[in-house]
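Quick start: read one record
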Amino acid sequence: MADSVFNENEQFLIEAREEVKTRDELGAEVNKLKTDFKKLSKNISQEEKSISDEITSTIKKRKKEIEDTYDDRIDDNRSKKKKVASKKDKKKNERVNERIEDETKHISQSTKELESELKTLFKKDKVPGFCATKFYYSLFAPKGFDEVLTLLISYVIYFAGIPAAATFAMKMFVFDKNEKFANTAFWCAVCAAVILIALIGIFFLIWNFTKNKHKETILEGRALMNSIKDNKHEANKIKSSISKDKDESQYNLEAFDEKLKTLDEEADAIAKEKQEAIKEFEKETKQIITDEINNRRLPNLEKMKNEKEELEDRLNDKEKEYSDKVVEISKKYASFIGEDLCKQDKLTDLIALMEDGQAATVSEAISLYKG
């Protein structure tokens, strides 16, 4: 059989070329169908995702619109409550202050009388007016932690801070700019000593002309100052007690409380309405939206899927046809002349050799072509 094939004329090769051409055309068609199938499959996937995304985004958007509607009402309610609460607090503060003023009226009156008595006492004994101050008594007759603390701070500032600041100023603007004061440290020490001595002198002058000279009056003033201090302490206790009192019934704030109660009930009603609206949305509206989008877009998707099925059937048929042709060529031609020569261009070359008379048989043509 093989010998007879190799002794065939060019007609054998021509028939082989036609079969190979048919095989190649089938192969090209299969490749095109595969490409179309892949592209259509991708388009279907994209369409399915697009439909799913539209459903998801639309549901999310519509749900947010519902939530925003109720949230705006809740924010408005909250703003109203804030305004009412602010008005209530303002009115309560006014009435608390009125109550404090009323309950400390006798203490305030007593304090004014004591202050007047203190001024009269000092004026009668010709004691300087600045002596009738808490600061003076903190420096020259302190009593209590606050006055002792004031004394210590004042001493530090008076006997250390002022001399240091004045000396530093002299150094910057006088000693450092004048060659006469070459020994800066010495002149700074002198300056500080002079200022300190002057301040001590002023302190003892005030001491001598006030406390020593009017000792009895200063002592009486101390007693009056103590009474004033006790009055202020008592007034602060009453003020603190009233401020901490949680009972608002005596301030006539019922109208505000009623308004706040109404707003609270309104807020609860809005929250309940929102909850019901969301529940209804999840139960019914969500499905309506899904159905509307599906009804609008699924027909086109189904059409694409049907096209895919048809294309798949065509592809399967063409692949079988191509496979059969490959097997046929392999049996009839490739098994004799070799798969490498079962190409259209090579078969054309072999045919040309025979048509030109260079080879009389297939065998001679192959030998000549390979040689």
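The mean pLDDT is 87.
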